[in-house]
Amino acid sequence: MSADHGKCHCGQIEWQVKLEDRAHILCHCDTCKKLGGGAYSLNQIVPKENLQITKGKLNTYTYHGDSGKPVNCYYCPNCTTHIYHHQNSGPGASWELACPFALEVGSLAPKLSRPVQKFIILIRWSKTVMGDKIVIRTILLDQGKSLKAGAEIFGKDRLSWVKEVAQTFEVLPPS
């Protein structure tokens, strides 16, 4: 499987991605329409390990998708082109660590000493709906115009004047 090259509108961010299928998935959800300013977005779902950012550093923000769950959006900080998205399902696991040091008032660094007080540091992370998979914007690839439509998702939100061009699912295909 060869890698496709992509870049944002201004060229500040570039990447390589290995697609699992040579087709777009058209998404008609209201969020994609608002983010992209069009009738749908062109995407593909791939393992995160298939994406390699080769130039620049992405910014991120979180919004809530159709499911109500948080979605992390990764975009160019200059032109705001959305490169990929990753959906969370909510809280995952927590770890508590007891730290055997005291903090001096006014100090940013802990002073190693005999434990005066037990500090608990809570570390949390989120499980993801998609596991290690991400939604990559396929129209941003150098060969994006040559890809055909493979499927349509969130057909329930399709604008009435947009014609169906591929197999359509009301929300998502069955797992």
TrEMBL record:
<dbReference type="InterPro" id="IPR011057">
    <property type="entry name" value="Mss4-like_sf"/>
</dbReference>
<dbReference type="GO" id="GO:0016846">
    <property type="term" value="F:carbon-sulfur lyase activity"/>
</dbReference>
<dbReference type="GO" id="GO:0046872">
    <property type="term" value="F:metal ion binding"/>
</dbReference>
<feature type="domain" description="CENP-V/GFA">
    <location>
        <begin position="4"/>
        <end position="126"/>
    </location>
</feature>
<keyword id="KW-0479">Metal-binding</keyword>
<comment type="similarity">
    <text>Belongs to the Gfa family.</text>
</comment>
<keyword id="KW-0456">Lyase</keyword>
<dbReference type="Pfam" id="PF04828">
    <property type="entry name" value="GFA"/>
</dbReference>
<protein>
    <recommendedName>
        <fullName>CENP-V/GFA domain-containing protein</fullName>
    </recommendedName>
</protein>
<dbReference type="InterPro" id="IPR006913">
    <property type="entry name" value="CENP-V/GFA"/>
</dbReference>
<keyword id="KW-0862">Zinc</keyword>
